[in-house]
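Sanity check

After download, print the first record. It should look like this:
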Amino acid sequence: MADHADWPYGSLLGNLPVRSRTALLDAGQPALFRAERPLMLQGEAGNCAHLLLAGCVRVVATTASGQEAFLAVRIRGSLLGEMACLNDQPRTASVVAVGDVETRRVGRAALLAVMREHPEVALEINRMLSARLRWANERRIDLVARKAPVRFCRLLVHLVEEYGHRTEAGWELDLALTQAELASLAGVVRRTVEKLLGRLRQEDIVRSSYRHLIVIDMDRLRAVAEMTSEIPNQTGVF
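Expected structure tokens:
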């Protein structure tokens, strides 16, 4: 099993001490999901959670009108489906494998037992849930208070800081997201993402191609991301 240094910084498994992390991993059973296969489905009983050991997943929800909303991405080291598992309620979203995914499936009773025996696990799960709630609240505020260019740049900054790495060319996003997925996360239409990426490329702030993005000038991207709808544009970009 991977040691502490092998888990992404800030992930649940990366934040746990070795003893607690080992207990949590040992409580689960190995599972493998091929690309585009669901790990869990919206509306089904939440009788287990998954520890993501390898690969990446996307979290999606279908509205009453049948429209699919892309809510989040999760990388290795993350815990998936814990809310429905802990409160014994139907799942509010589906989780789908992006490429092949390896997990450990942890049943409700086993998860609760580990949380009782290892308070660090319960504490880190609470911290994780708080961080996800903060993210969701920030996105709701952005939808009301900020215009589309600002919302989109704020999303890019967040994704690169959370899931990117530094290269000679700039900050490379380690997630293969489509323009439609970026649009759903930012609360804009796909055509808006196409236009905004085009303008960011013209200004030499980003380089992008299909499912690939590098931020060349993070300072200028942050400058747009920190604007509010009441502040005149001083960046020369939007």
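If your output differs, re-run the checksum step. Summary of this record's structure: The mean pLDDT is 87.
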